[in-house]
Amino acid sequence: MYIRQLTIPVVSILLICAAGFVYILQEAVGRADEEVIRSDARVLEAQVGDLGRSLALIAEDNSWWADAYENLYNKPNLEWAKVTIGETVNGIDFIDGVIILDENDTIFFQYFEDPSLYDANLILPDLLTYLQTFEAVDNSSSKSGSALVLKDGRFFILGIGMVQNLLEKSEPLPKPERRPVLIFIREMRPDNLQAFGDRLSIHDVHLHTSTEIPSAVHMPIDRSFFPTVYSDDLPYILSWQPRTPGTEILMDTAIPFLLIFGVASAAFAIFFKRASRFVSDIDKANQAKSEFLANMSHEIRTPLNAIIGFSDMMRLGIFEPITNKRNKEYIEHIHESGVHLLSIINDILDLSKIEAGKWQTRPEEFEVDAEIEECVATLEPSASKKELHVSCSLDKMLMYTDKKILRQILLNVLSNAIKFTDQGGAVRISGTNVDTEYLIEIEDTGIGMTPEELAIASAHFGQVQSTYARDHSGTGLGIPLIHEFTALLEGSITIKSTKDVGTTVTLTFPRNLPETI
């Protein structure tokens, strides 16, 4: 029973701690995985932007050039465009094709590595409004830009450059002029997206429209993703397989953790079983000890009462006076020793009965202040012998409790106060009504105890001094027995003691108790 009472809160606390640890770990893992997903989204967005800027730089490099100005604007030369611009497309692996529009937005030249895959009319219609912003204000300033075109479920990244002369200084034109533009194109086909993501360690990158439901994490391709986007009526979404390093670490450690937890649980179960058996055996042994002491005390008390009775008769000379002084002294010692031994046996018997659960209380109604005065009167001879000053201050109160047990408690506390108070000392007793309780305080000016000595005295058979050196006889059961009796009456006891100053014992009892305790 006791081991279960001990282990249930311990196991509960351990389980709560384990659950809290798992919850915190899951939260940390979840936050780590979410941060990786956000990081992947930022990387994808940044890389698409970098690709658009790279295409814009290539377009600017091929359009802001005196030869380009001469052969594409001043004197359009188709052959030059095929050889020069087409060579650029063939020389860079992330360019799929190029379209050159004249100043009237008419296709002057187009080249694709695989013409069957591309249709300029798929790209240009939505782009024309943007291209109208490409106007020259002089003959030296360049203009370039990038854009995304999303059409018919396809994803194009464009780099655009306006044809411009390369003069060190140029006067402003009378009015802005439209110039030819070079449009370099990269389509993010499924294979390109896969390769694009693999280079970034982002796997299974796919393009979806709103009619499809991505199975992994995703983000929309809109103006928050890229500044210039042209698309049809369907929103477009990039999805990818998320990286979950936190979850992977958790899964890698889950099996070892479960194994360790299983082994620890099995070990604890074995410990609990053995400890329960051990405690049960101790309880049985303690119960047997208490019953044995109770039985033996009865067996010893019967002949001891005879010894006390006969020695008392001899001491008093009932049948024949004893004139020999030494014999009389010996009979007196026999009687005193018998009475002392009977007191010890009574204490052991009382404690054994309480521990064995055989003590039955018999509550009755009585005046507690009168009972305290009777106990003080009973011990008055002992106090007078030591010339102690005993004072009482008691409130009147009716109590309903076991009168005999309360009397035993009071006699034990008072006898200890008198026993351990030096000649000429003082013992003060007070009784106070506190709501529905009665508070009894017994204070003496005796030898007192240190906290360590008080702990020893509160233990069963505990005595502060050694058997041979102690100045006051006793069994070491006084304080433990007081504690047990007080608990029987559902009261409480507090002991405060100061070495060489004195001891104060405070007893608190409820006024009314149930009929069966």
Automatic annotation (TrEMBL):
InterPro entries recorded: CHASE4, HATPase_C_sf, HATPase_dom, His_kinase_dom, HisK_dim/P_dom, HisK_dim/P_sf, Sensor_HK_Regulatory, Sig_transdc_His_kin-like_C
Protein keywords: ATP-binding, Kinase, Membrane, Nucleotide-binding, Phosphoprotein, Transferase, Transmembrane, Transmembrane helix, Two-component regulatory system
GO MF term list: ATP binding; phosphorelay sensor kinase activity
Main location: membrane
GO cellular component: membrane
Enzyme Commission code: 2.7.13.3
Keyword presence, Nucleotide-binding: yes
SMART domains: HATPase_c (SM00387), HisKA (SM00388)
Stretches assigned to the Histidine kinase domain: 295-513
Positions of transmembrane segments: 6-25, 249-272
Entry keyword Nucleotide-binding: yes
Location relative to the cell: Membrane
Reaction equation(s) it catalyzes: ATP + protein L-histidine = ADP + protein N-phospho-L-histidine
PANTHER family attached to this UniProt entry: SENSOR HISTIDINE KINASE RCSC, TWO-COMPONENT HISTIDINE KINASE
Official protein name in the record: histidine kinase
